[in-house]
Q: What sequence folds into this?
C-alpha cells in the first residue's frame, strides 16, 4: 500500500527521532542502547503490529514529548530480560557488543515472536523513575529548608513508583561532604562543580505523589517493568534502581492515581508551620499544555497567599529550551525563580550555581 505524503512525512520524522535519541544515548555513555534503537528502526516494518504502531505513531515522537524511542527501548529491554527471547537476551549486556547484523537478526526474530506483547509497552510513557535525580531534587529541598527553617510537606507529580519521594532515605556526597541517611545501601555521588553552599538537610513530615499509571512497588512484575526502563548498558543505574527498590519495598511511598493538574489543585496548598513543596523531574513535557497552565495558575494563586510561616515552594528538574536539564526553585512569598544547578538527565555531574 502506497503511503500518502502526510504518512511518509510522519514516518520520516519518527525515524529521525530514533536517530536523534540514539545519538543522545551514545553521548550519555549508552552506545549499546543507541545501537539497539538504530537496529530496530532499520528492521521495523508495517507488516508487524509493533512496527506498524511505531511507524504510524500519531503523536510527537521526540524526547520532549512522547519519547517514542524510549518506549521501544524499554519494550525490547523488558523482552530481553524476560527470557522469552533468548537469542536477543544473549546479545544484551554484560555480553560482548554484538555485530550489527546479529543485532538486527535477533530483533527481527524477537518482534515476530512477541509482536502483540511489545505493542502494549507503547501505551505507557517512560517511567524511568531515575533515582539519581534525587541528588538534584534533594538539593532543592535543602535550599527550601535553609531559606524557610521549616519541615517539609512534599508533593510530587509524575511519581511513577515514587522512588524519588524517598530521597531522604538515600545518602549523598556533594562538594566532598556526605549528606543524607546513615546506613543506607544507596549513595549518590555525582561529580561536583561549584561552591559548597548547598543548604540544610530537610525534615520531611508528609509525602505524597501522583501518576496516571502508578507503579505498585510491591508487585514483582511492576518492579521488573520499572527496571526495564533503565538503559541496559548502564550498570550503575541498574544497581541504583535495584537498591532503591529494595528500600522502597520495606516502606513503599504513597502514589495516587491522578491527573497532575487535579492532584496539585487538591493537595498543594500552604499550611502553617511547614514548607509545602511541589516537585517534579523530567515530567513537564508529558503534561498537556492545559495541565501545565492549570498547575502554574494554581501555584501562583496559592503562592500569593503564602507567608513566612506557611511558605510554598516549586522545585523542578526539567529540560530547558536547549533540552538541557536545569534545577530551579520558585519560592513564595515573593515567587522569585532561582536557577540552582545544571546537570545531565542521569545526574552524573552537577554544576551548582549558588
A:
Amino acid at each position: 500500500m502506497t503511503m500518502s505524503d502526510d504518512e511518509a512525512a510522519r514516518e520520516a520524522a519518527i525515524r529521525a527521532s530514533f536517530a536523534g535519541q540514539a545519538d543522545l544515548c551514545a553521548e550519555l555513555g549508552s552506545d549499546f542502547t543507541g545501537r539497539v534503537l538504530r537496529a530496530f528502526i532499520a528492521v521495523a516494518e508495517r507488516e508487524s503490529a509493533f512496527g506498524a504502531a511505531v511507524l504510524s505513531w500519531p503523536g510527537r515522537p521526540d524526547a520532549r514529548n512522547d519519547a517514542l524511542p524510549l518506549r521501544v527501548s524499554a519494550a525490547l529491554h523488558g523482552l530481553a530480560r524476560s527470557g522469552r527471547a533468548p537469542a536477543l537476551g544473549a546479545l544484551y549486556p554484560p555480553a560482548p557488543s554484538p555485530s550489527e547484523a546479529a543485532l538486527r537478526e535477533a530483533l527481527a526474530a524477537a518482534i515476530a515472536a512477541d509482536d502483540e506483547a511489545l505493542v502494549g509497552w507503547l501505551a505507557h510513557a517512560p517511567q524511568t523513575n531515575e533515582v539519581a535525580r534525587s541528588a538534584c531534587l534533594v538539593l532543592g529541598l535543602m535550599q527550601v529548608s535553609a531559606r524557610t527553617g521549616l519541615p517539609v510537606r512534599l508533593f510530587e507529580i509524575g511519581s511513577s513508583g515514587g522512588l524519588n519521594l524517598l530521597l531522604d532515605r538515600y545518602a549523598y556526597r556533594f562538594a566532598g561532604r556526605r549528606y543524607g541517611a546513615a546506613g543506607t545501601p544507596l549513595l549518590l555521588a555525582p561529580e561536583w562543580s561549584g561552591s559548597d553552599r548547598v543548604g540544610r538537610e530537610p525534615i520531611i513530615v508528609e509525602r505524597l505523589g501522583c501518576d496516571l499509571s502508578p507503579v505498585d512497588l510491591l508487585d514483582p512484575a511492576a518492579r521488573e517493568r520499572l527496571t526495564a526502563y533503565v538503559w541496559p548498558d548502564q550498570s550503575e543505574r541498574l544497581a541504583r534502581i535495584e537498591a532503591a527498590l529494595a528500600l522502597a519495598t520495606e516502606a513503599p511511598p504513597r502514589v495516587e492515581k491522578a491527573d497532575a493538574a487535579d492532584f496539585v489543585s487538591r493537595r498543594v496548598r500552604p499550611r502553617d508551620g511547614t514548607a509545602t513543596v511541589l516537585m517534579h523531574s523530567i515530567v513537564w513535557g508529558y503534561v498537556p499544555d492545559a495541565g501545565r497552565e492549570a498547575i502554574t495558575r494554581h501555584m501562583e494563586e496559592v503562592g500569593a497567599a503564602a507567608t513566612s510561616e506557611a511558605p510554598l515552594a516549586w522545585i523542578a528538574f526539567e529540560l530547558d529550551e536547549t533540552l538541557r536539564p536545569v534545577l530551579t526553585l520558585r519560592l513564595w512569598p515573593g515567587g522569585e525563580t532561582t536557577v540552582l544547578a545544571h546537570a545531565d538527565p542521569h545526574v552524573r555531574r552537577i554544576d551548582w550555581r549558588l
